[in-house]
Amino acid sequence: MVLKQLQHFLSYLQQFERVFIRRQIDTTLAERRYELSAKQKQIEKDEKRMDELDRLFRKIYEDNVSGKLNDERFYKLSDGYEAEQGQLKREIEALTAEVSQADMEVTNVAKLIAVTKKYTRIDELTPEILNAFVDKIVIHEREKKDGKRTQQIDIYYSYVGIVDIPTDEEMREMEREYMRRTTRQTA
């Protein structure tokens, strides 16, 4: 069953590579575009606040040295600024990692396409092929529906996870739509 699914997946990628890439990137980024934009703005805001805290810290240090600010008040303010900077630094790191992850998802689609170019046809399921294309396989419990036993198997493909492979007719329609959009954009 896995071999059959891989053959179908490889055929799909070879026939409709452009549509697949477009679809993967659109679904991963379109859903997250607003979220990523908001995170990028938050990173910029946090970085500005970090700079502002540095300026404030220098100011209270100078005020302390010149005697305008007593030591007790200086320590209280500086501890607060340092704690806020630590919090901001952790937040910036977390947000940066999330934004980088989205960039990585686009790169992963390209990596999968590169792997598929190595294989024109898969006749036999070998460990090499399995490792190249599949991250994991999840086999669910058997169920009995309408007097028939069924068992769901989820294949998580390398770099992109589970892929909903459209029917051939759906893919041809997507290809026609893609060509219409491309033709309109170049005209």
UniProtKB/TrEMBL annotation:
Domain named DUF4368: residues: 99-163
Coiled coil: 36-105
Pfam families xref list: DUF4368
UniProt keyword Coiled coil, yes or no: yes
Domain of life: Bacteria
UniProt key word Coiled coil: yes
Keywords, alphabetical: Coiled coil
Protein name as it appears in the record: DUF4368 domain-containing protein
Protein's organism: Fusicatenibacter saccharivorans
